[in-house]
Amino acid sequence: MVQEIYLYPIISVLISIGIFFIVKFVIQSKLSGLKGSSKLLGMISLMIITLEAGYLGINLGWFDVATEVIASIGVGFFLVTFAIQNHLKNIVSGIGLYLNKNIIVGDFIEIDGIKAQIIEFHLMKTVAQTSDGKIVYIPNLKFNESVILISHG
Asked: Which residue, 26, 71, 70, is CA-closest to 44?
């Protein structure tokens, strides 16, 4: 019989595995056409593993000795998150653009004086092509920060 001290960690691991598969299903079904969405699954998986390891460490007493190390890791995690905040904003904007039905591949846009046709959406950028054949990479955050003219192609 499983001791009671191990019951909650086992349930926690099973819940984390369930959350992973739900997130994987949602990303594959709703964001399958968004290039780079597999990176999003990797980031969410890393977050689930980190949180689960933290929970297990606290619950099973693994961190009783390493409190200072945990605090340092937390500060490091905060600094890394702060450093990549623009990337995170672009990722969230990319998902919003992809799910927005008002702008689709093939639409013509004008942003910052550049007129181009959208070729594809990526997780962090949108690829467009100008009338003279030049490829333009537009950070997805730009769609939230600028006035954009959209005409459906």
From this structure: 26
Pairwise CA distance, residues 18 & 12, whole Å: 10
Which residues form the domain of 49? 4-83
- Statement: residue 136 has pLDDT above 80: yes
pLDDT for 2 beyond 60: no
Assigned domain for 130 exists:
yes
Q: Is residue 92 part of a domain?
A: no
- 55 and 108 in a single domain? The answer is no
DSSP state of 122: B
* Number of domains observed in the structure of the chain: 2
User: pLDDT digit string (tens) for 54-92?
Assistant: 888 888 777 776 677 777 888 888 888 888 888 889 889
Q: What is the DSSP string of 8-52?
A: HHHHHHHHHHHHHHHHHHHHHHHSTTSBTHHHHHHHHHHHHHHHH
